[in-house]
């Protein structure tokens, strides 16, 4: 079918909104009309990788309505409202153990932009292939073909256009705190980076009952918002004595990937504590052996979450007023995708959400 999509034809160039022909859903796939799709840092980071197949449709925080299903699909049906999350095989050791974000095929299924059989999933008007399986969905478009394992059914009464970011960034931040760091009542945590992932971690730490939640960021507005969302203290990330300003904590969480910040995040953790890392693209990190003394360091994918279980839990917390992720969101039309990317990069907008519909 013919759809409109934001296509990246060159890593260093802007997105262009074009018509493409999307393939019909195959076995284990569903066609989803995209209602909203978040722009994640991963989309911005990987768009600069020249080894990815271009042209490509990015976008991996989609939400929408199922319009058709392929052979063998039983978990969703046309008319279902869904959030699209990451893809996984379902049968490797990690998937069978309830850890799909560490699937043996995670990178191939999510970061290649192609189906597992190497097909692209879409073509442009000249018939040239367009990679349309980014994180099993490629949701910067009016429609996406997703895998059945990507999809999480949600109540049709919910504001579907806002739910897409739960599929990756917000799931990553909240899941890292609740599933990995296991923040306990009255414990302390420092969150480095108060973007969407970091603020999701702040809100989750408040849900967990943490006694001290320290938010670290360069932007005064984000530090102020972190305090409104549950942080007990906010620290300027440019402080030359950053470790001292943060103080010792039971666990820490870095979303920046900046080597110097990661070193600080590890250093402020008390012995027997854990430092969680999710930031990428910052370069090599050097730690002295004594940095590990009594401490655990975990690089976390997707908050160690099973989306079909965790996303409904985040929605319940939002309905209770305990996870107000909607405060992070600013919406844009699909044609405004380059403006959304600029606003995200300069800190004007914490979580851009594109609305591809008319």
UniProtKB/TrEMBL annotation:
Protein biosynthesis as UniProt keyword: no
Keyword Transmembrane helix: no
Known cofactor(s): Zn(2+)
Keyword tags: Metal-binding, Oxidoreductase, Zinc
Source organism, top-level taxon: Bacteria
GO molecular function: oxidoreductase activity; zinc ion binding
Domain Enoyl reductase (ER) positions: 12-354
Family: Belongs to the zinc-containing alcohol dehydrogenase family.
UniProt xrefs under PANTHER family: NAD-DEPENDENT ALCOHOL DEHYDROGENASE, S-NITROSOMYCOTHIOL REDUCTASE MSCR
UniProt name for this protein: Aryl-alcohol dehydrogenase
């Amino acid at each position: 079918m013919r759809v409109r999509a934001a296509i990246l034809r060159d890593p260093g160039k802007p997105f262009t909104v074009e018509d493409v022909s999307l393939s019909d859903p195959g076995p284990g796939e569903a066609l989803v009309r995209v209602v909203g799709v978040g722009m994640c840092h991963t989309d911005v980071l990987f768009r600069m990788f020249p080894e990815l197949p271009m042209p490509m449709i990015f976008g991996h925080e989609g939400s929408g309505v199922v319009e058709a299903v392929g052979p063998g699909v039983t978990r969703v049906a046309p008319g279902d409202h869904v959030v699209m999350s990451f893809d996984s095989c379902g049968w490797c050791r990690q998937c069978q153990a309830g850890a799909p974000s560490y699937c043996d095929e995670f990178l191939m299924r999510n970061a290649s932009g192609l189906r597992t059989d190497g097909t692209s999933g879409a073509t442009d008007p000249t018939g040239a292939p367009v990679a349309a399986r980014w994180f099993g969905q490629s949701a910067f478009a009016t429609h996406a073909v997703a895998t059945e394992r990507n999809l999480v059914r949600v109540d049709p009464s919910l504001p579907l256009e806002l739910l897409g970011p739960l599929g990756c960034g917000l799931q990553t931040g909240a899941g890292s705190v609740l599933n990995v760091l296991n923040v306990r009542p009255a414990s302390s945590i420092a969150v480095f980076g108060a973007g969407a992932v970091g603020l999701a971690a702040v809100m989750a730490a408040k849900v967990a009952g943490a006694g001290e939640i320290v938010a670290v960021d360069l932007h005064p507005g984000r530090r102020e918002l972190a305090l409104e969302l549950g942080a007990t203290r906010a620290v300027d990330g440019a402080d030359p004595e950053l470790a001292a300003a943060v103080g010792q904590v039971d666990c820490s969480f870095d979303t920046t990937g900046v080597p110097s910040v990661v070193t600080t995040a590890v250093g402020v953790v008390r012995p027997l504590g854990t430092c969680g890392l999710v930031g990428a693209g910052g370069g090599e990190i050097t730690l002295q052996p004594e940095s590990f003394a009594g401490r655990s360091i975990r690089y976390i994918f997707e908050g160690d979450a099973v989306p079909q279980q965790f996303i409904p839990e985040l929605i319940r917390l939002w309905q209770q007023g305990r996870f107000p992720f909607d405060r992070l969101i600013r919406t844009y039309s699909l044609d405004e995708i380059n403006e959304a990317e600029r606003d995200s990069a300069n800190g004007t907008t914490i979580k851009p959400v594109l609305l591809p519909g008319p």
